[in-house]
Amino acid sequence: MRLRFKLKTVFILYFTVSLLGLIYALMHLGKLHSLQGHTKKEPTKPHLPTIYVITPTYARLVQKAELTRLSQTFLHVPQLHWIVVEDSSQRTDLVSHFLEHSGLVFTHLHIPTPQDRKLQEGDPNWLKPRGVEQRNEGLRWLRENIWAGETAEGVVYFADDDNTYSLQLFEEMRWTQRVSVWPVGLVGGMRYEGPVVEQGRVVRFHTGWRPSRPFPLDMAGFATSLRLVLRNPEARFDGNSPMGFVESSFLQGLVTMEELEPKAEMCTKVLVWHTRTEKPKMKREEALQAQGLGSDSKVEV
Ligand code: UGA
Ligand code: MN
């Protein structure tokens, strides 16, 4: 009787421990799965070079709207891998859930911008560059996770979360050899800025400001081949560069102006727009909140 009782206890204990172990393993698996991207999007086209899109993003009222717009563009692009880098000390639930349900192949990273590099309330937005640490984190991930062999056929593009992208743009950049370039609409206080092409070569840049910069290009106006990124492990964005020189800090040393590959019909078509989203006013929300009648905080916006 005593022996039977003991055996029963041992069995129950054994069963409970195994079950807990199994649950823990499954939870872990689920977590890893959500960080390292899904392959839901069908059909994949392995014969095409993969476009790695690196997007810095940060928490604010319009974030989910921006990511929705972006992701629904990317869903139409074959063989695209979205590297989303949050400007935060942790992955947020909002972005994690968003990506899990996006239907895209993704990698979810995060790195906070140090406090002294962040814009403060009221600072003019040209004072400090944004998204620099996050783009560098995306580059680090690529260099640590993609093998630099001959099969590393791909393209790297830095896509801010608030711009507007034509699907055609991705097909223009897909066969980039070193660095390809094109115009960007609604940027720098101009209708568009971009490279000027003569006889198939970039000879100068159409820009309203400091054309003498090594590469007077907006972040949205170029893509680099994955191979070039992997073979130049020191190439990164310098957050200390003066205003307007962040793009140059990355491109200098990777390519010369003569080597740039002009796309979008020799840089005569605008396929990406530097749109910026208005910050929503929350006056009424705040007034209602003061009376305890604010919108339900459990509703994600
Ligand atoms: C312009 C350029 O187009 C950007 O490529 C450049 O990073 C930026 O200026 C700059 O000055 O650094 P702009 O529209 O003024 O763009 O910048 P945002 O769109 O506000 O920010 C660029 C990216 O960084 C966005 O993807 C945004 O989500 C992200 N960001 C912004 C952060 O990760 N953290 C922040 O605190 C702010
Ligand atoms: Mn922007």
End-to-end gap: 62 Å
Please give the radius of gyration in angstroms.
24 Å
Ligand set: uridine-5'-diphosphate-glucuronic acid, manganese (II) ion
Number of strands: 12
SS-derived structural category? alpha/beta
Low-confidence stretches: 30-34
Helices and strands, in order, run as HEHEHEHEEHEEEEEHHEHEH
Profile the largest sheet. Answer: 7 strands, mixed
Number of helices, counting only DSSP H or I runs of 4 residues or more: 9
Strand content: 15-25%
Fraction of residues in helices? 25-40%
Shape category: globular
Mean pLDDT: 90
Strand order of the largest sheet: 3-2-1-4-10-6-11
Q: What does this entry show, briefly?
A:
33% of the residues lie in helices and 18% in strands. The protein has 301 residues and is an alpha/beta fold. The strands form three sheets. It has a seven-stranded mixed sheet with strand order 3-2-1-4-10-6-11, sandwiched between helices.
